[in-house]
Amino acid sequence: MEKIIDENKQGNSLVLEQEVTNSRKLYIESYGCQMNFSDSEIVASILAKEGFNTTEKMEEADLVLVNTCSIRDKAEQTVRKRLEKFNAVKRINPKMKVGVLGCMAERLKDKFLEEEKIVDMVVGPDAYKDLPNLVQEIGEGKNAVNVILSKEETYGDVAPVRLNTNGVSAFVSITRGCDNMCTFCVVPFTRGRERSRDPQSILEEVKNLAERGFKEITLLGQNVDSYLWYGGGLKKDYDKASDMQKATAVNFSELLSLVAEAHPKMRIRFSTSNPQDMTLDVIETMAKHKNICKHIHLPVQSGSNRILKEMNRLHTREEYFELIDNIRKILPECSVSQDMIIGFPTETTKDHEDTMDLMEHVKYDFGYMFTYSERPGTLAERKLEDDVPEETKKSRLTEIINLQQKHSAFRTKQNLGKTVEVLIEGNSKKSDAHWMGRTSQNTVTVFPKEQYKIGEFVNVKINECTTATLIGEAIGYSENN
Ligand code: SAH
Ligand code: F3S
């Protein structure tokens, strides 16, 4: 369910599933969005070829990597705190080398080496294929930096090593970068311009996952709806493509159909959709294929037309409502979730009320809500004063979260007495006697284990619920098994 993993949480330490016989040990932590977790699997794959085994114990690692997030200041602070911890470990194990990957690496570049003395290596999101060289350099006692952004790199030819896997669900990246330039967002600067991955390599990755018993994939991109494969190159250069390239281009709804038809038993999710780019075709394709999960993460950020404009979100609240109405009409059982930014510069009480009003109209199933955090280099930072007082941001955020909780409770309650199909992912957090899985709508469901196993599709009758969780009992296997 989680798109953005709370940066306050400890980063997950990751374990390589296939042991490679060699002596060097890699410890890797990831923060931020799903794309970062997916990228860490690419990094592990590239370094496995160099003979690195992953370890869960930082103390025994030769190389410690942290895949970082820059989306909010707090995310960056979390990483800086972790570097202090790494420093303490390095005192015990002086041979240990430390590398910073991801969005903070791209944003700070070689400044990182000055600001954080513990760091030996800084590698941006498009430079992971250079890791073998960079690791060799730091092995020779030098510092190493590669933060070059690419027009082509999609890592389409790297088979990710599945880290920390439950063997049931996996991420498959389909685009990299973003061209949208929302004024608050650092991603276009840290991940570069948008490129799409060859559908053939996506299909191969999914096939490989299916053969290994995976049952659910999430197609990942900053803005999946603008996926467009025309033979390679940046999305913004599509106009220059040849007639032949245009005639054979593949868009997101076509990619969804390709994947859904090739693997009718595989559950397919995708994240993230952008309201301005989501087309009716995508909604209709979702309706056509039972295996495409009925959940759309559709961040809106604000319910005020004035703020949406300041954010350079290229749609109005009325257009957003139209999209929601179409989703409700074509996919009545579909869940919808949101991201909201509270306290964007110049946000008034009236703008805030518009956001609450929009939420009341949509009644989202769940959402991720944060106060605005000014990011260096973004248009908002350069043009607008961060003028909403911190206390106002906090009190508005509390109101928004409370309203979302009310709506989440409303949505989960609609399932009482119904039977839902659940894919079992693992133990319930609260009880080893219960399984945890998700419905097509992405709602977490728990039920007694009985004879069922991880990776099975089970029909569950819902008897109780909390705000975010359904509680029930299995009544048999679903036809998808
Ligand atoms: N399209 C992307 C969005 C990445 S950022 C995706 O695939 O998820 C994820 C969310 O972080 C955004 O939707 C937004 O709600 C939030 N966010 C981005 N920049 C922010 C900022 N400067 N302050 C607060 N929240 C921000
Ligand atoms: Fe950021 Fe907007 Fe792209 S939120 S990732 S610039 S769609």
Automatic annotation (TrEMBL):
InterPro entries: Elp3/MiaA/NifB-like_rSAM (IPR006638), Methylthiotransferase (IPR005839), Methylthiotransferase_CS (IPR020612), Methylthiotransferase_N (IPR013848), Methylthiotransferase_N_sf (IPR038135), MiaB_methiolase (IPR006463), NA-bd_OB-fold (IPR012340), rSAM (IPR007197). It is found in: Cytoplasm. GO terms for cellular component: cytosol. [4Fe-4S] cluster 1 binds at residues 33, 69, 103. Its main location: cytoplasm. It holds the Pfam family Radical_SAM. Residues 164-411 form the Radical SAM core domain. Residues 413-476 form the TRAM domain. The lineage of its organism: Bacteria, Pseudomonadati, Bacteroidota, Flavobacteriia, Flavobacteriales. It catalyses: N(6)-dimethylallyladenosine(37) in tRNA + (sulfur carrier)-SH + AH2 + 2 S-adenosyl-L-methionine = 2-methylsulfanyl-N(6)-dimethylallyladenosine(37) in tRNA + (sulfur carrier)-H + 5'-deoxyadenosine + L-methionine + A + S-adenosyl-L-homocysteine + 2 H(+). Binds 2 [4Fe-4S] clusters. One cluster is coordinated with 3 cysteines and an exchangeable S-adenosyl-L-methionine. Residues 24-140 form the MTTase N-terminal domain. SUPFAM superfamilies: Radical SAM enzymes (SSF102114). Monomer. This is tRNA-2-methylthio-N(6)-dimethylallyladenosine synthase. Belongs to the methylthiotransferase family. MiaB subfamily. [4Fe-4S] cluster 2 binds at residues 178, 182, 185. Catalyzes the methylthiolation of N6-(dimethylallyl)adenosine (i(6)A), leading to the formation of 2-methylthio-N6-(dimethylallyl)adenosine (ms(2)i(6)A) at position 37 in tRNAs that read codons beginning with uridine. One of its GO terms (molecular function) is tRNA-2-methylthio-N(6)-dimethylallyladenosine(37) synthase activity.
